[in-house]
Structure of NUDIX hydrolase:
Amino acid sequence: MYQQITNYQPYNEQEAKDKELLLKVLKQKDVLTRENEVGHFTVSCWVLNQNHNKVLMCYHKVYNSWSWLGGHVDGEKNFKKVALKEVQEESGLENVSFMSDDLFSLEVLTVDGHVKRGKYVSSHLHYNVTYLMEANDQDELKIKEDENKGLRWFSFEDALKASTEPWFVENIYSKLNSKVKDYLKR
């Protein structure tokens, strides 16, 4: 992963600054596991439909908002493997593919303290990499009840309206939508 992040070309100032931090923290102990309570690696997935005009979002129980799919790497060094597993587990979709082998985005995310599975989790950082993926919006979606309350395909604009996390909408989801438009022009 170190080489992938090293080779990654930042899209904007946020990604440039976050890339610097990600390269530093990759050298620390336990950043691939939740044992590092200050911060650890996660993957997120911006999943487009087959026509590339909608994005799949889940209604996340912890954040009480429509959000992208993804999860903790939990020690796995193959982040693409984690991304695929997370999308399949969180959506029930079996046929999901990567639109690129490269990282699509990267970010350092703050996570507020919350209760998960009956235990309090202190505020911490998610050192996140994002993959661009594709699935058929006609395939059946299945809610992962311990993590989300809903799954839905949104137009890019409606995805921004659906999320109740202003920082994510302004800094992450809007960026991802812009990057998708640029990516599809190629």
